[in-house]
Amino acid sequence: MFPASKLIYTLVKKDILLEFRQQYSFYGVLLYVASTIFVLYMAMGQPEDMVWNGLFWMMQLFICVNAVAKTFLQEGKGRQLYFYSLCSPVHFILARMIFNAVLMLLMNGISLLLFNLLLGSPVNHFFLFLGISCFGACSISLVFSFLAAIAARAQQNAALMAILGFPLIIPQIMLLMRLSSLAFTDVFQSGLGTIILLLACFDIMIILLSVILFPFLWKD
Amino acid sequence: MLRKNWWKILCIIFLLYTFTAGFLGPVPAKPILNETIRNLYFHVAMWFGMMIFFIVSVIYSIRYLRRNNPADDIYAVEYARSGIVFGILGLITGSVWARYTWGDFWSNDPKQLGAAIALLIYLAYFVLRNSLSDMDKSARISAVYNVFAFAMLFPTIWIIPRLVESLHPGGMGNPALDTKDIDSRMRLVFWFGAVPGWTLLGVWISTLHIRLHLFSLNQERHV
Description:
heterodimer; A: mainly alpha; 84% helix; B: mainly alpha; globular
């Protein structure tokens, strides 16, 4: 195996192992997802299609801020220094992004399940929606992985991440909402390919920028 | 550049020309637009200024990351500040114009949303800066955010308005202005009066802030 990919694999494995050892934080996020969706259910009952769609994506956003913030913010200075001496920043941020994407995919699945259970299931093409939501969850987690790295350097809480991230994520969320609204109707809408292409370009750009910029955040 | 005078005189001449030709000069009579077409000299020029200052700001941020010179950070932050001021003015002039042509100050048009997003992003830049007390760290982290935010924002305001429907002039093609609506006299005032005039004014304001900022930095060093 390629040394770089092996290194990244080890780092991702380390993150997953840590997650298994410190299960309270994982369950914390899980409970956050469940209780927020329950509150939504109490407030909204079973909303219309577009409201359902909007609520789902807003939920993804809030889950992402909480789930991704935790991975960076729970690391102390000592542990960061330890990683610093072990591996290169590029490997570190790539591993973090992969781990966060996996975490978000999991949370995405759980919240989709709970949404269907509590808020009704207006989605006509379930697998199309599932695919779009997985794609979206990965995109959002990439952006917030980098922003969490910034917020962690600023020794701030998740609030700073929300301030930094929400304006940046609006275009992507709006594109994702447009894309996922296709799963509610049987009418074919044009422009689907362009939106997917645009979102994919965003993702590639975010990964490239993180690889370029993260080394500057890293050194202290 | 900071202390030279010729471009300041040029700036005043450009702006005087913009104001006289902009308010008194002939404009094509268009339905709905009528005399509000003169807003081109003020509103659109604000957006040109804002984009130029944000681009200058990000260039200085990149320079800061490469060379670690505190002056570069001061240039970046002051140009971002001027960009925000121009952005707010652009939003206000645009809303007033929209009140008379679209019937409402705010109608959730993609371009209005893009402008609001841009302002939120750069306001967040200032929150991030001020949340860090260590100057060197604050400069480096906010430079990283500036580059990241810039790279995320500019595709948004250049590509997405071209994909969605909008009431804004120039719906197809250039999102900022519709070249079919303006004639050659207006084009002259716009490109040789408004855009350079307002941009130079913004540069002037920024350089004053930069000089003040650099001065206080030197004072701190000597204390």
